[in-house]
Amino acid sequence: MDFATLIGLLGAILLIVTAVVLGAAPDVFLNGASLLIVVGGTLLVVLAKFSIPQFLGAFKAAVRAFKFKLPETRSSIEELVEVANIARKEGSLGLEGREVGSPFLGSGIQMLVDGQTDETIKQLLDKERLMTLDYNRSGSKVFTAMADVAPAMGMIGTLIGLVQMLSNMEDPKSIGPAMAVALLTTLYGAMIATMIASPIADKLSLRMTEEARMQMLYTDALVAIQQGINPRVIEQMLSSYLTPKERDKAPEAEAASG
Question: Which of 127, 185, 205, 217 gives the lowest tally of CB atoms within 10 Å of its CB?
Answer without folding.
Answer: 127
